[in-house]
Amino acid sequence: MASQAVATVTAKTWEEDRIAETDASHAVAKAVFTTSYSGDIDGDSTCGLLISYVDGDPEKPETLVGPYVGYEHVAGTLAGRKGTFVLAARGDHRGGVARTEVEVVEGSGTGELAGLRGSGSYAADAQTYTLTLDYDLA
């Protein structure tokens, strides 16, 4: 990848519903949340996740443990170029930290971000965290 973007991501909303449940600690859930980006990426996003909880107390979300997958639609600017793109996300939440690997979905870039390719990661342990994205723009 030719360039690297670093962005501060701030959570704005979180809505979660359990879609199947064995008990309080073992469930499948879907979550939709929104964030704002600032830094090398500036804009807003909406993300949808599917989560498999395998441990923890739902009354104390920081104790929940489990893997997740999803997609995040980002609208804004990257390197001064305006458009949208989608990040495919895969991660795991344990010890109060959501560690996530992301990859730009091929063909998802629009506007001046058409042709965007890349991958990155973040570790979110609070409402604000840092995303690093290595990328190429056609």
Q: Could you characterize the architecture of this molecule?
A:
The model has no long low-confidence stretch (mean pLDDT 96). Helices cover 0% and strands 72% of the residues. The chain contains no helices and 8 strands. The protein is elongated. The protein starts with a strand and ends with a strand. It has an 8-stranded antiparallel β-barrel with strand order 1-2-3-4-5-6-7-8. It has one domain: AOC barrel-like. It has 138 residues and is mostly beta strands. A hairpin with a 1-residue loop joins strand 2 and strand 3.
Structural class: mainly beta
Order of helices and strands: EEEEEEEE
Major sheet: order of its strands?
Answer: 1-2-3-4-5-6-7-8
Whole-number total of structural domains: 1
Write down the CATH class: Mainly Beta
Helicity range of the residues?
under 10%
Round the Cα radius of gyration to an integer and report it. 15 Å
Q: Please name the CATH architecture.
A: Beta Barrel
CATH fold name: AOC barrel-like
| Annotation field: number of helices | 0
Count the E strands.
8
CATH superfamily: SO1590-like
**Overall mean pLDDT score?**
96
Strand percentage, roughly?
A: over 45%
Q: Could you give a short account of the major beta sheet?
A: 8 strands, antiparallel, barrel
